[in-house]
Amino acid sequence: MLLPYDADDRHAVSQLDSYRHAARRLRITLVKQPVRTLEEARTVLDGVRKGEVDGILSPRFLSLNIPGFIIETGRRRGIPTMLHNAFLLEQGGLASYAANYYEISRQASRLVDKIIKGEKPADIPVEQATRFELVINRKTARSPGLTIPPSILLRADRLID
Asked: Fewer Cβ atoms within 10 A, N terminus or C terminus of the chain?
């Protein structure tokens, strides 16, 4: 699984250990590919050929248009893509497993309401996302060379056509 990331983005770099540990637990070979410029990101992803990697994983950070290049490469080459939010699937990505942004927004609104009503932010407990969803773009999945097993489609929380 190819993981291109912005080597100059400290947040992206700080996540590499998490990706590496998850890949090891899942017995997936993770190929980390640092890039530093928009041109380098485009060149690296344009150079990926089907058969060289089993898929491309998008980092959670949007720098250097990496997710956009991943979507383009996945579509052109028939390489599965895993992105960090469902919005990118509507742009042509294949799959995402991430926190539900609608639920996160509701959670944030509730916390803002507490602050508006006078509660000190320091007194409000930290909350994390509790609802994650698997979303699959079936139109992208019908691309030549891609097949999503029915068992995975049945597990999806949402399917995009």
From this structure: C
